[in-house]
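Chapter summary example: a protein plus 5-O-phosphono-beta-D-ribofuranosylamine.
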Amino acid sequence: MKIGVLISGRGSNLAALIGACAEPGFRGRIAVVISNRPGAEGLKVAEAAGIPTQVIDHKNFASRETFDAELDRALREAGVELICNAGFMRILSDGFVDKWRNRQLNIHPSLLPAFKGLHVHQRAIEAGVKITGCTVHFVRPEMDEGPIVAQAAVPVLSGDTPETLAARVLEAEHKLYPMALKLVVEGRARVVGEQVTLMEADGTEAAPLFVPAI
Ligand code: GRF
């Protein structure tokens, strides 16, 4: 399965996905990495791995729809079958999201549906939650919503700052995203009624993928 990864920044989740695709027997490969920001560090991560990159700078487009149309064109030209958002900081139009329905994944650094949006770790600390984590889900038009493929749990420790918590959650993200991607490329994550059912390789139903606290 040809994968397109969308980034806006550092690209550490991209690096984790590149690592996953390099595993023997992995049934997906990254065909293109696209950034909406020209200076994104993640572009270097892709280049170092020999993966084609493209910059589609949203500032060059008059509207969200024209940017999304160019993104869609570039992904299709690269033969992409599955999109992975990896720190992609753009809201996509409903039209784009619908075209890629159940073929676009996102990772979010909280246990959705808690703490959608930005400043997630600060908000988790302020709320006093004892466990947070990260979620891989199929993308829907509403931000940080959609059928959940897998989640990982991370404890909030006393004395945590948004930075220390973010670092611990990021570690979990780097484990979770490759595991979730593997299930999707193997066709083992089925969306039924806006929920994901995981299947074993023999077609029987599998237990939900929940990575315990790290
Ligand atoms: C990650 O925490 C991801 O969950 C969030 O943005 C961050 C991106 O980090 N959406 P990186 O670019 O993958 O290092």
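Key point: The beta strands are 2-7, 29-35, 53-55, 82-85, 104-108, 131-138, 148-155, 189-192, 195-198, 209-211.
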